[in-house]
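Cross-posting from the chemistry board since nobody answered there.

I work mostly on the small-molecule side, so proteins are not my area. We synthesized magnesium ion and want a rough idea of how it might sit in this target. Sequence and SMILES are below. Is it possible to get a predicted 3D structure of the two together?
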Amino acid sequence: MDRTILHVDINNFFAAVECLYNPEIRDKPVAVAGDVELRHGIVLAKNLIAKSYGVRTGETLSEARAKCPGIVFVPPHMERYIEFSRRAREIYDEYTHRVESFGIDECWLDVSGDARSGKEIADEIRERVKKELGITASVGVSYNKVFAKMGSDYKKPDATTVITRENFRKLLWPLPVTDLLFVGGATARKLKLYGIRSIGDLACADFELIRGVLGKNGCMLWKFANGLDRTPVLESCASIKIKSIGNSTTTPRDLVCDDDVRVTLYVLCESVAARLREQCFKCTTVQIHVRDSSLESYERQVKLPYETWLARDIFDAAFMLYKRHHDGRPIRTLGVRAMDLVSQESAQIRLLPESPTAERDEALELAVFGLRERFGNAIVRRGILLTDPKLSSFSPRDEHVIHPELFDKQRA
Ligand SMILES: [Mg+2]
């Protein structure tokens, strides 16, 4: 008995969410971009209009603007995307408990055994995502995961494509081999040496030849191309798990002394601490990321003997890491990341002691946090930040990591 698998892919996810929050940019070319004002900014996502101008994810803002002079850049809001992703997931969960996330905007659903056809369910999910979330999705329906995913890519936006045992050769085999899941540039170049360009070429190639050229990975791809993928839809946990919360900045001038670093780290740590609190997390590991003016970079981390969400603790750890590991070269980019997060619920079952000054610092930081909530960030600034207003007046770039490997896919 064949399985019925859906793959739901939200169209232009980040840009679609931003357009919902800013209806006035809906009919304009829009790109979600990191670091709009600062030195390095890249396109993280774009809407269909920007895409029609040839704007691509990963290119610089000036490249995008050259192709599309009217483009509107908006900063990313990870917390919004996480919320929309969670709400989409709630819809999927109503149809089956077998739901597997693939990145923040894609899921497989195994709806085998449902009295309705896969297409009926797919169309209903599309309608609900549109009506309840205000964004569109494309859905692929097939008897295996790989073809379901290819179905959701086949027609966009807001479409359902059914790939069957009867039509997969006609629909998928003419496509370039790079359209197959997990076929990257290097694999495609190797296959091209053997005249294999399309998915059909791969499917019809001799299995032993492919095994010889690509090894075990090749065997898997050959099976995918022939519709022989049997991998199950895994029941992944319902909520997206945030693995770390970080902020980084490329500073307006190079950081050349301890005081420069202290100021910048402080802003970053305060922002990380505020976001930990918003998301109800404490951390037990702090990591710094440093890129120097010769563009060499490194990361160093330290495990704390306690769990914390205090800016002071995160700063102390980050500054200690900098002092211990930095060789004095001018610094261009600095980042701080809170890792090994524990949720507030589990933090209540104390496995680790609080930081030594926790009680006093926590009361102070919560008071500051409360003031900022009501009056904005500028209301309370630490004395340290007034030493160089130019250095300290940036807004840190958010770097949520949600299953890092999957988030990278979104950027790719
Ligand atoms: Mg998508």
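Reply from a structural biologist on the board:
Welcome over. Reading the output above for you: Residues 9-11, 13, 105-106 surround magnesium ion (CB under 6 Å). The CA atoms of residues 4 and 112 lie 5 Å apart. Happy to explain the token format if needed.
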